[in-house]
Specification:
The protein is α/β, with parallel strands linked by helices. Helices cover 32% and strands 19% of the residues.
């Protein structure tokens, strides 16, 4: 498919929001920032508009999308909120980086959920996302705004580098603070089930509703959440992932790369980077929140300057590690 859009990056103001609204209501695509990553948005009620998302990204059409709405939007017009614990979760975590998969009322395109009778709904906390969603005032389907399987974008420039020519407008809200995609939970059963880990953790959910579990995400069933079925988050360079006690093995790989004329970089938390002082480094930060915020940014920085990114497991002692490692293990080849 050929694309020939004149892609613009615009700061978020009344003029760009009016422009965005016109595009969305005319079945076109708009990239916009959230607190996690940039999304590639289209009106969720139109098959034609949603199909443009899949085409622009080169995304498999059995990989579901998330529908984004503003904080005042009446979600009950789209889904059945028929579980008592749903209100507790909404009160505790929304707006925020939590997506909930509900039974659908069939108001959005079936392409959004790949034909399933469920739909994933998210209410982002980002002021920029809220401004966009309130301006358009319709449900917006939006995966991450990048070519399928590439590292998710956390700046407007990242979006432009992947999707230039495939959409007219990228709303620039600066660097995303959260860094990894939202936690996705299934709320169609008697207890919430985590389909994809993120910044809203298992412990946080359990503390609010009393019980929670992880999905097994078996390969034989249709997935209800993005980020589960396929390879994701891959930088455009070679990668390797080591356990923290495999430093000597990782250094050997680094030295071999140098000897063959390649430029390797280690990517790790600040503690590991202190140990690796003197080598090329991509520093992720110290805390789980810092590392999550910096992960994609550093992967995308690394692919520009490195032939090989050598990463280490992240162990901060918090439940955020689960979400971080979920992304790292999809982005980097385990050695």
């Amino acid at each position: 498919m050929k694309f020939s859009k004149n892609t613009k990056i615009c700061k978020i103001d009344d003029i760009s929001l009016d422009y965005a609204k016109n595009l969305i209501l005319n079945n076109e695509l708009v990239a916009f920032p959230t607190e996690t990553v940039y999304g590639l948005g289209a009106i969720a009620t139109s098959d034609d508009a949603v199909l443009k998302i899949f085409n622009a990204k080169g995304r498999p059409q059995d990989n579901p999308l998330i529908v984004h709405v503003h904080s005042d939007y009446d979600v009950s017009t789209l889904v059945y909120e028929d579980k008592d614990y749903i209100k507790k979760l909404k009160d505790a975590f929304l707006p925020g980086p939590l997506t909930m998969v509900y039974k659908s009322k069939g108001k959005v395109s079936k392409l959004v959920s790949c034909g399933l009778d469920t739909v994933a709904i998210r209410v982002p906390s980002s002021k920029s996302a809220q401004a966009f969603l309130k301006a358009v005032n319709v449900p917006v389907a939006a995966p991450s705004a990048n070519v399928s399987k590439h590292t998710s974008p956390v700046t407007a420039e990242h979006v432009f580098n992947d999707l230039n020519g495939k959409l007219e407008l990228i709303l620039d809200g600066g660097k995303c603070s959260g860094g990894i995609e939202s936690t996705v939970i299934d709320v169609t059963g008697n207890e919430p089930v985590i389909l994809r880990s993120g910044l809203v953790t298992y412990d946080m959910i359990k503390s609010v509703v009393g019980k929670c579990r992880y999905s097994k995400n078996t390969s034989t069933e249709k997935v209800k959440s993005p980020g589960v079925k396929y390879s994701h988050y891959l930088p455009k360079c070679e990668t390797a992932l080591f356990k923290r006690n495999e430093v000597e093995k990782a250094i050997s790989l680094y030295n071999n790369a140098v000897e063959t004329g390649k430029t390797p970089y280690f990517m790790a938390d600040d503690g590991m980077c202190e140990f690796l002082k003197g080598y090329n480094l991509l520093k992720l930060g110290k805390t789980g929140e810092e590392i999550a915020s910096n992960l994609y940014y550093k992967l995308l920085e690394g692919e520009k300057i490195a032939d090989l990114i050598i990463a280490f497991d992240v162990v901060t002692g918090t439940d955020i590690d689960v979400g971080i490692m979920n992304r790292l293990e999809k982005a980097c080849k385990r050695c």
